[in-house]
Amino acid sequence: MRLADNSTLASALAHGQVVVPLFILDPAVLESPYHQKAVKRKAFLFNGLRQLEADLHERGSRLIVRQGRPLDVLRALLAETGATAIFAAEDFSPYGRQRDGRIAQHLPLTLVHDLTVHHPASVLTAVGRPYTVFTPYSRAWKAMPPPAGRDLRPAPNGLQPLPGLASGALPAAPSSAHFLPGEGQARQALAAFTQGADAPIYDYGQGRNRLDWDGTSALSAYLRFGMISPREPVIAAQQAIAAAPHATARASAEAWLSELIWREFYIGILYHFPQVARQAFRARLRDIAWSNDETAFAAWCEGRTGYPVVDAAMRQLAATGWMHNRARMIAASFLVKDLLIDWRWGETWFMQHLVDGDPAANNGGWQWAAGVGTDAAPYFRVFNPVLQAAKFDPYGAFVRAWLPELHHVPDEFVHEPWRMPAAVQQAARCTIGRDYPAPIVNHALARERALAAYQRAGSLVAG
Question: Is 362 noted as a catalytic residue in this protein?
Fold first, then answer.
């Protein structure tokens, strides 16, 4: 959903002078469990398409929107236009690969690698196998030829239109101040994060974990929808690394580059092991005896667990369609380890609410938190929500921002409000059990329960 550094568009223009920009509203995607309820993400998509339409209009072209099965829509449009070729960015998701394979059997489809810097099939071990651990993958990724500024293709100055084509209307969608759509906004966010001697990228090593700081790039939704090329952030990171004023700043910029590589690692995992979309990568941990308490799950979804950092994270997600990455880890660990609820329940909930919800990254993150994935946190790593909150929200600013009922709670109790004496609760106007819930689970006991469940699952397979 961009015109600059768009390899697919460049390939189409190299094939012929007239290009018909097309977006298909595919019911199989929009009405799937992941996307049907994703109101905020679909709003960002639809408003992003409107911005793309405006950018195309400035260049003399227009966006054609059609709805239906992609094969049927494309077949009809080829007949209408007399077009001789179809160009699309290669999709690495299981559904996308199946869809594109069917289309290629019947129509002149050319897939262009444009979703990642390095194709998943090109980052392999010495014996030609996919990496399943991030660190060696990252080393191999960095050893490959890096993108350079000279490789970035500018947006075309003009595009020759094909008049008379009917286009459907995009669904109405509310705008969001949290993520303004379009490649212009994406590039502004990238520049604000990476450019200048005091750019936030140079504090990223610490800032990326602080829940009470605005220390991240806010690029995830733009990368998710291709509103910025995957090459541009990598080039910006490399330039920031080279220009870093000191070693700590350089390490922070390198940490951000690693996050971009993590994105490609998870895309590669889904590409090579599509079964992870439905089950744990680790076979011995596919039969954990989850409790799957629906009442507890509802409390987690609605931010009513009694653990402030978890509840603040979930309310941030509900209100904005975004959640800080550290908060994602804390919330995921709490659902899986403290509540012993199947990680796939949380994975689906996140996909239904995240504006930047990406099947590969979301799946990889949840399997990591659950300890069942490729490069996963050990199953015995259980985040203590109180200690995590004290470390990454030391003054309670994040918690108070999303839990106004804790606004007057003293700092010493803000992450453990159930410890407040009755007199303090009265003074803070926060009675536990009435104004804010008591913890729905004892963390220490829940941790032991989770470890036992994981150990049983592992020993059953091993036996």
Answer: no
- Beta strands 86-89 and 22-25 are unpaired
Query: Is 290 assigned a catalytic role?
Result: yes
Q: What's the pLDDT score for residue 177?
A: 74
- Look-up of token digits 């409000």: 417
pLDDT at 463: 35
Catalytic position from the list 262, 300, 322, 402: 262
pTM for the model stands at 0.95
* Active-site position among 80, 213, 325, 416: 325
Residue indicated by tokens 């469990």: 33
pLDDT digits (tens, 9 = 90+) for 200-244: 999 999 999 999 999 999 999 999 999 999 999 999 999 999 999
Q: Domains of the chain, with CATH numbers?
A: 7-114 (3.40.50.620), 184-272 (1.25.40.80), 284-462 (1.10.579.10)
Which one from 80, 213, 259, 384 is the annotated catalytic residue? 259
256 is catalytic: no
Spot the catalytic one: 80, 209, 290, 416: 290
pLDDT in tens, 136-146: 999 999 999 99
366 is catalytic: yes
Q: Spell out, as residue ranges, where the chain has pLDDT lower than 70.
A: 376-377, 459-463
pLDDT at 461: 44
